[in-house]
């Protein structure tokens, strides 16, 4: 039990924006990314309902979609594995994650 004067910290969150290029004028890849992210991290939403949402937001730019997601810090590697696999399946190249 915490004392009345004790300050504690809970989990750390990471917010990332993933830029998905529009290939050949088709933006369906971005919608698939959002749908697959929602599916792959659905069980996490039960544990972290205030952290993991389907996506935080998205912007349709001229040549790409910017998709913003928030995940708990301890799921960062799992998220990058998901993005890496998604890119391989859709013929995209993934840059190394930010350090």
SSE topology string = EHHEEH
The Rg value, from CA coordinates, equals 16 Å
- Mean pLDDT across every amino acid position: 84
CATH architecture: 2-Layer Sandwich
| Range of helix content | 25-40%
| Tally of DSSP helical segments | 3
| Sheet with the most strands: spatial strand order | 1-3-2
**The first-level CATH class name:** Alpha Beta
Total beta strand runs: 3
Structural class: alpha+beta
CATH topology: Alpha-Beta Plaits
Instruction: Give the CA-based shape.
Output: elongated
Percent strand: 15-25%
Biggest sheet character: 3 strands, antiparallel
Q: Segments where pLDDT lies below 50 for 5+ residues?
A: none
Structure description:
- By secondary structure, this protein is α+β, with helices and mostly antiparallel strands.
- It has one domain: Alpha-Beta Plaits (2-Layer Sandwich).
- The protein is 33% helix and 22% strand.
- It has 3 helices and 3 strands, in the order E-H-H-E-E-H.
- It has helices at residues 28-40, 42-47, 76-89, and strands at residues 13-21, 57-60, 64-72.
- A 3-stranded antiparallel beta sheet has the order 1-3-2.
- The radius of gyration is 16 Å and the shape is elongated.
- The mean pLDDT is 84.
